[in-house]
Amino acid sequence: MIDFLKNRKVQIAAQAVVITGLVGGTGAVVTMNKPVTLEVNGQAEEIRTFGGTVGDILDSHEIDVDKRDQVKPGVGTKVDRDMTITVNTAKKVALSVDGKKTNEWTNANTVGQALADLGVDAKGADLNAKAGQRLKDKGNDIEVTTSKDLTVVADGKDHKVSAAVGTAKEALKDTGVKLDKDDFLSVPMSAEVSDGQVLTVNRVKNDTVNDKQAIKAKVETKKSDSLYEGETKVETEGKDGEKQVTYKVKTINGEEVKKEKKDEKVLSEPKTKVVIQGTKKKEEPADTGGSDSGDSGDSGDSGSGDSGDSSTGGGSGGGGSMSTAEIKAMLGGPGTKWYSVVECESNFDPKASNGTHFGLFQFLPSTWEAMGGSGNPSDASPQEQFQRAKKLQAEAGWGQWACA
User: Fold this and answer.
1) At the topology level of CATH, where does 211-280 sit?
2) Beta 100-106 vs 70-72: how paired, if at all?
3) Strands 148-154, 219-228: parallel, antiparallel or unpaired by DSSP?
4) pLDDT tens digits for 39-85?
5) Are 92 and 105 in contact (CB under 8 A)?
6) C-beta atoms surrounding 294 within 10 Å
7) What is the helix, strand, coil percentage profile of the chain, to 5?
8) pLDDT of residue 284
9) What region does 162 belong to: left with phi over 0, alpha with psi -120 to 50, or beta?
10) DSSP states of 365-404 as a string?
């Protein structure tokens, strides 16, 4: 008798094959006794029956059919001689595919049939049981690791993987790529992988780097009345020092991600630069009243006074002189940028010179000529000097004066 039916507590009673006088003799009995093959979950047995339908045969063999069971032909089908009746009972399966777990029902009889029935492609896959293993009524655990195509990127190279791997660790092992102490994958080693996934090996390096750096020399300023205000002179040339700084540098795939200072050592001390800054006051030109240049500046500048006294005065934009007060007024007075520049550069002295720079705005002769001037800038009138300075500022900006 069929073992599976015994497991489901189905007992197939032995049929009486000798029935006398009930249907009109031995010939009638043989005529109504039909040979039938009964196959339950792949196990077949030939029986003889008087049943009229498939359902009658199942009932006579005490086979209870569940709604999930599969019966072919249907229970209402009339029985013919040499008919095969197939019963595949429903079986519960705990299925795990690449770590994803589900509970399923199937009428299949083997592990391989169950996977096909449940739509799982087991080609090239790893199974926890053989494909031909028969299923039980319950307690069937099937674990499947499907075959995948992945790429592991390491050291600038692509390593292809075509295998039944379930985790990143298994994929990496398949490539033969090794991880050093601090190296890591782009996903955790225990992470489940999927078809087409790309995994990256991150190479980590922790290096000690020594970097030589300059120590900027300090600048010390000394006041001295040996120079006029606005004049400077270098007394001692300075020199930058040098130090060695040690860093711990962390890189991932060659890119710096962390830099930590660990030590510093002075290799050579810097030498301070000493600059002498003049404090000596310059004498202001004497105020000659209204003789040649005129205090008012009106008659002297215009050259059209009542008498000829002003004809040798300041002139209009020529080499005429102005008082300090007039120069300050011309510059716009305290608070203006021009006022601050001239105060710093020449202390309002149109004749100021340090040997290389001249006049109110301390022009270089080459710059003066470039702005249309001629001769020495300090020989020109304050008005002309201001005119050339404004032209220079318009063309080159305030950066021409350190005092700006």
Assistant:
1) Resuscitation-promoting factor rpfb fold (2.20.230)
2) unpaired
3) unpaired
4) 898 889 888 887 689 888 888 888 888 888 889 898 889 988 888 98
5) yes
6) 20
7) 20, 35, 45
8) 62
9) beta
10) HHHHHHTT--S-GGGS-HHHHHHHHHHHHHHH-GGG-TT-
